[in-house]
Each structure stands twice: as structure tokens, then as C-alpha cells.
Amino acid sequence: MPARSFVLPAASLLTGGLAVLVYVQDSDLVVLREHLNHPFALGALACLLMGAAAIGLPWWWLRVLIGVLAGLGAGAALFGGLLALAFASTEEAGFLDGPAPYRIRLQQSQAGLGPDTVMWLSVRRDGGLLSREWDLGCFNDDNPDDAFDSVQWTGPGSVEIRVADGRTFPVPLDPASGRPRTTVTLNCSP
User: Fold this and answer.
1) Which end of the chain is more exposed for a tag (fewer CB within 10 A), N or C?
2) What is the reported pTM?
3) Chunked in runs of 10, what are the mean pLDDT values of the chain (190 residues)?
4) Can you tell me where the transmembrane regions are (predicted)?
């Protein structure tokens, strides 16, 4: 068998493995989090590569079987991706600059099918391709007292988050890495 007959199956397996890795493992590198975090698209690509690899098989029944399974798998991955996009999409709500190289990122999304809004906060340490971002907090306004109100820097390594009823949550950052030592979650499912 020629060596090129192993290229498409190997590419399919690598792409499928990458899809599973991206789905189960969250990265704190911004480049990976924003540009490679598409497990359903990677899964669909893996299925299509496997379908293309089946074209060169000598047995017609195996070509048809793998082609049908690859088509069903790609369709299921795309459908799952559309559902995830519909129910888990977030919108940018802005950034709050802090002491260099830090800033806080605010994102907003709908909570399921209801009118509730979820505010996601994360702290980002800018560093070019090695920029990192860590979760800082999540606030669901299902209970109006727990709705996100504001966030402010209280020092070079500390942040304070305020909710609608006036409660405050101080969050210290690790001085070496910038990773939050604690996170705040109110009415958000893990």
C-alpha cells in the first residue's frame, strides 16, 4: 500500500482527537480559547476526512458503510454545534483595563430559554501569543439581588466585584501568574 493511503485516515484520527481534547479540556491560552475552541467543527471535519479516506478502499460495501457513517457523524456534529451555538453563545460586554498587563473581560449571555442574563467575568494577562485568560466570576440575574453590578481594581493584584444588593466579593490575584486565587459564582450552573 502506498504511504499516501495512510494520510487521510491519520489526519482524520488526529482531527477527531483534537476535537475531543478541545471539548473536554479548557485552555487558559487566549489563542487556543478563541481560535481553536470549535470541537463540533473539528468533529465534522474528522468525519469528512474519514469519508474521503474511504473512497480509496477496494471493497465497495466498506466504502458505502464508512461514507454513510461519516456523513451521519458530520451531520450530528454540525447539528450539535448549531444547538451549542444557539444556547451557549456569548456577547462581548466590554473590557476594564487594569494595571499593565491585566484587564477584565465582560461577556453576557442568555440563561437557557428564559429572560435571565448571565454575566461572565474573566481576567486577561496580555502577552502576545502567550496571553492568558482565567475565569473570574459568573452572575445570573435569576435572583435580582445576585445580578452583576460592577467590577473594579482595588490594587495591582486584587479585584472587587459588586452585585445588585450591594454585596462585594474581593478576588485576589496570584502575584506570579495573575490567576485569580478564588472565583465568584452566583446562580450559575458549573
Assistant:
1) C
2) 0.68
3) 70 85 76 77 88 82 86 88 74 81 83 72 84 86 82 87 89 86 79
4) 6-24, 36-60, 66-88
